[in-house]
Design goal:
The complex is a heterodimer of chains A (255) and B (353). Chain A has 255 residues and is of the alpha/beta class. Helices cover 35% and strands 24% of the residues of chain A. Chain A has helices at residues 43-50, 73-78, 96-100, 111-114, 120-133, 150-164, 180-195, 207-213, 236-244, 249-252, and strands spanning 5-14, 17-27, 32-37, 58-63, 66-67, 81-84, 168-172, 199-203, 216-221, 224-230. In chain A, the strands form two sheets. Chain A has a six-stranded mixed beta sheet, with helices on both faces. A four-stranded antiparallel beta sheet of chain A has the order 2-1-4-5, covered by helices on one side. In chain A, a hairpin with a 2-residue loop joins strand 1 and strand 2. The longest helix of chain A has 16 residues, at 180-195. Chain A is globular, with a radius of gyration of 19 Å. Chain A starts with a strand and ends with a helix. Chain B has 353 residues and is mainly alpha-helical. In chain B, helix 4 crosses helix 13 (279-289), helix 8 packs across helix 12 (242-268) and helix 13 packs parallel to helix 15 (326-352). The longest helix of chain B is centred in the middle third of the chain and has 27 residues, at 124-150. The two termini of chain B are 31 Å apart. The chains are: A alpha/beta (255), B mainly alpha (353). The interface between A and B is medium-sized, with 36 and 34 residues. Bound molecules: adenosine-5'-diphosphate and magnesium ion. Residues 43-44 of chain A line the site of magnesium ion.
């Protein structure tokens, strides 16, 4: 199966720090790909490059095999590539539906639409549909998201991206701040999104979580991909080994 | 006056399948919750406060305070403040701040009088040209504030504190500190005439409030104002041009001061150079009392209308009650502090929830 999203030899330097030094990556339709690596391995930087937030210094990005330059996050979004960043970027004073449609507001039909009058009821309806169909527990469509629980807020951010992601969805550590039950729900949601045919990329520190949910696992170390696994063929020990370099004997023999 | 915040009622359709019965029951419960939430907001509380103030002054001196002439008086004094408060509501919802509105009002006031004098003659033409010039220079100062804040990254507090002084100084330079007391008769007539018992000046304020209230609560421009104030980073990531939006709001703030300057000129048939140094306090107090958050992301236009009437009514009532009007300034200052304190308490309790 060919990759929906493929990155080849991506390089990115921040001053003296080589955040990515020829990183490769691929994600497939309908699969959950976990992207793991130690702190500072370059995961977030790679996600930012692949979602159009920062421009890489070098390398190639292919969407459905087509070489693509992502000029901005908006450009990436137009191509069906959505990202849930670690900080969620929700407007805390607005409601769940308002947040889902931020920057993509729906207008009433006819002359009212020409006056840019919002169709709040329709946005609320569509958002609620999304929340229900994705099995989230976001019910109160009128409360500001600041009044929701951490898990519900995460659900709002994920649903917002899911609603528009028809190709690729990046989730940067979506469960880092969540409790056990809320983590469960988010992982279920991640699986459900993949089943719709989206290529889901999950960044996580939690190896058991990764093994539970991922079809494929890509390991990043020092700005490069060092290993690829099938989720069912590997173990926590193997992943940790690849992340830390314990399995990579070339790297271990240093002068 | 409705405090619904512009929520659109959900269309009820009878041809829905039974499966949606539950959803509709749920929607009904939610609407009831929304109503409860609405009743539990600052505009509703503040309407109660306003009523109390009214009742108190009526008890003190019913004949003078509740007379038609006095109520007209209150609305007339409120009108220029309300116009500025409307723009300030936008700006504060977007987490902006403009302290210079009183000075910009004076500057526009002077320009309007000068331009009307320069065009000369009587009739509508000089008045309209003066109005356009006043709104223009107001918007210009607003743009200047906006550019300093968004492009040069000077904090709004400092930028508009700077223009608060500079713009007033510039107005004094133009007039050598003396008020201009000759204005076209047609402007004086406009200031004195009324329609349906309501002064034209008040009508202007009403129209501005209604139009900008609808834009705030119903349109995408309004929605983006809330998003920018609630989480500027979220707004950026959603592709909203945050700087341009803020620039528009600062220009709107300046333009509103220009229009307020016109209304003041019509009301007093003279410039009022020294009469607006505390306008910004009254306006911000009114907006905050009306429930708009100093920290952005939250606010209602209806609240601003109620909020602005509180310091104005207080002032009017105190004069009628023969209390030195300086007490109004004392009261307004402390009310402002109390209102911001309450806003902060509300935020903290919400974040704990
Ligand atoms: N904006 C930045 N400026 C400078 N250095 C950065 C920046 N972003 C990331 N880095 C550096 O790049 C490296 C990779 O970071 P990052 O992609 O955040 O790793 P990860 O998400 O895997 O923890 C780190 O050494 C980090 O300090
Ligand atoms: Mg990271």
């Amino acid at each position: 199966m060919s990759a929906v999203l493929e990155a080849r030899d991506i390089t990115k330097r921040y001053g003296h720090v080589q955040a990515l030094s020829g990183a490769c990556f691929e994600a497939h339709k309908g699969e959950v790909t976990a992207l793991i690596g130690d702190n500072g391995a370059g995961k977030s930087t790679l996600v930012k490059v692949l979602s159009g937030v920062i421009a890489p210094d070098g390398g190639e990005i292919l969407l459905d095999g087509e070489p693509t330059r992502l000029d901005s996050p908006q450009h990436a979004k137009r191509l069906g590539v959505e990202t849930v960043f670690q900080d969620l970027a929700l407007a805390p004073d607005l409601g769940p539906a308002d947040n889902v449609f931020v920057g993509r507001e729906l207008f009433k039909p006819g002359w009212r639409g020409r006056l840019r009058i919002l169709d709040k009821a329709e946005m609320r309806r569509q958002a609620l549909d999304a929340f229900v169909s994705m099995g989230t527990d976001v019910k109160d469509m009128h409360a500001p998201v600041a009044a929701l629980s951490g898990g519900q807020r995460q659900s709002v951010a994920i649903c917002r991206s899911v609603m528009w992601a028809d190709r690729v969805l990046f989730l940067d550590e979506p469960t880092a701040a969540l409790g056990v039950r809320q983590t469960r729900n988010v992982l279920k949601l991640v699986r459900r999104v993949a089943e719709r045919g989206v290529a889901v990329i999950l960044i996580s520190h939690n190896m058991t979580e990764v093994l539970e949910v991922a079809d494929r696992i890509e390991v990043l170390r020092l700005g490069q991909r060092v290993a690829q696994y099938r989720g069912k063929d590997t173990s926590v020990e193997e992943l940790v080994g690849a992340m830390t370099g314990a399995l990579d004997f070339h790297e271990e023999v240093r002068p | 006056m409705s405090a619904s915040g512009g929520a659109t009622p959900t269309a009820q359709r009878s041809d829905q399948p039974e499966a949606e019965q539950d959803a509709r029951a749920q929607a009904r419960v939610e609407r009831r919750q929304a109503l409860a939430r609405t009743l539990n907001t600052s505009p509703v509380y503040m309407f109660g406060v306003l009523l109390c103030i009214f009742v108190a002054f009526t008890v003190v001196n019913a004949t003078a305070f509740t007379s038609v002439a006095n109520v007209q008086n209150i609305t007339l004094s409120a009108a220029p403040y309300l116009v500025m408060a409307v723009a300030t509501t936008y700006l504060m919802i977007a987490s902006g701040l403009d302290l210079s509105i009183g000075s910009v009002l004076v500057f526009a006031n002077v320009i309007e009088a000068k331009v009307m004098g320069a065009v000369g003659g009587d009739g509508t033409a000089p008045v309209l040209i003066g109005l356009v010039a006043g709104i223009g220079v107001g918007a210009g100062w607003g743009l200047f504030n906006g550019i300093c804040v968004t492009k040069l990254r000077v904090p709004a507090l400092i930028t508009t504190l700077g223009t608060l002084g500079a713009v007033l100084g510039a107005a004094d330079l133009i007039t050598a500190g003396n008020d201009i007391r000759t204005v076209p008769m047609s402007l004086v007539n406009f200031g004195a005439d009324s329609f349906l018992g309501v002064s034209y000046i008040v009508w202007v304020a009403i129209v501005v409030t209604v139009v900008f209230g609808l834009i705030l609560h119903l349109t995408r421009f309004g929605r983006h104002t809330y998003i920018v104030g609630s989480n500027i980073e979220a707004a950026r990531r959603a592709g909203i041009n945050v700087d341009r939006h803020l620039l528009k709001l600062y220009a709107l703030s300046g333009a509103s001061a220009g229009l307020a300057g016109f209304l003041a000129l019509a009301q007093f048939a003279s410039t009022t150079i020294s009469g607006h140094s505390t306008d910004v306090i009254t306006v911000i107090t009114g907006v905050v009392l009306g429930g708009t958050s100093l920290f952005g992301g939250y606010g209602w236009m209806v609240g601003t209308v109620i909020g602005i009437l509180i310091p104005i009514t207080l002032n009017n009532g105190l004069i009628i009650a023969n209390v030195q009007p300086f007490w109004q300034q004392v009261a307004t200052g402390f009310i402002l502090i109390a209102a911001v304190y309450l806003d902060q308490l509300k935020r903290r309790s919400r974040e704990r929830a």
